[in-house]
């Protein structure tokens, strides 16, 4: 049917569990890959360069912006983050689905260049639960947590730019809903029209 992979752009506030949902989805769906972003923030404990992120200096990051190496890039809590363009386009062309787990400014840039992407916003069950999850992670200082909560409130205002909301009540439910979204998107007539036309209408 449709040969090109789906670009799944997944945003949501820091601490909502996007990474866990995407990780579990990827385990069940080998046809889908996660884009590894570049960032200027320092690695957290256990993070590996080239696996979780490509950790770059500001200088290197700016050079890659100048070379048009990013599909999108944004500043989040004083650090640069960006999606390597060539790697993502190659995977889509090979028919693989690709997940971009990115914040809203970047998602809006992707939407303007690549409107056929599927834009999904992950919600916590409540604001209180989001705060609990951010604290429970135990990797950030109070100052960083406060900044990320402020940023979360600002991000919710962009929700109308997305096609779907995905509440992360339990990871299992969220992964199942993500699968349902992907299946529905793959059945859209607009994504299959040229095949349907060639095969059945002529
Ligand atoms: P963290 O520092 O917690 O790993 O990520 C902070 C925020 O940056 C998260 O909302 C994450 O989704 C977002 N992010 C990660 N990679 C990218 C990227 O390549 N581009 C953009 N715009 N945001 C990203």
Structure description:
There is one protein chain. The protein is of the alpha/beta class and 202 residues long. 47% of the residues lie in helices and 20% in strands. A five-stranded parallel beta sheet has the order 2-7-1-8-9, with helices on both faces. α1 crosses α7. The chain is globular, with a radius of gyration of 17 Å. The chain starts with 6 loop residues before the first strand and ends with a helix. The model has no long low-confidence stretch (mean pLDDT 94). The structure holds guanosine-5'-monophosphate. Guanosine-5'-monophosphate (5GP) is lined by residues 14, 37, 41, 72, 74, 76, 81-83, 101-103, 105-106.
């Amino acid at each position: 049917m449709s040969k090109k992979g789906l670009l799944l752009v997944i945003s949501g506030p820091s601490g909502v569990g996007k990474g866990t949902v995407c990780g579990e989805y990827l385990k069940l769906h080998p046809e889908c890959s996660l884009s590894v972003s570049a960032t200027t923030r320092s690695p957290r404990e256990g993070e590996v360069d080239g696996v979780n992120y490509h950790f770059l200096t500001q200088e290197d990051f700016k050079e890659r912006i100048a070379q048009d190496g990013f599909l999108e890039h944004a500043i989040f809590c004083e650090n640069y983050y960006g999606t390597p363009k060539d790697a993502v386009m190659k995977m889509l062309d090979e028919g693989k689905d690709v997940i971009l787990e990115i914040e809203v400014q970047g998602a809006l840039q992707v939407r303007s260049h690549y409107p056929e992407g599927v834009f999904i916003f992950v919600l916590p069950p409540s604001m209180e639960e989001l705060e609990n999850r951010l604290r429970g992670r135990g990797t950030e200082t109070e100052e960083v947590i406060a900044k990320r909560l402020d940023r979360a409130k600002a991000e919710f205002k962009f929700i109308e730019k997305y096609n779907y909301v995905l509440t992360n009540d339990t990871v299992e439910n969220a992964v199942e809903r993500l699968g349902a979204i992907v299946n529905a998107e793959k059945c859209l007539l607009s994504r299959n029209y040229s095949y349907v036309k060639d095969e059945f209408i002529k």
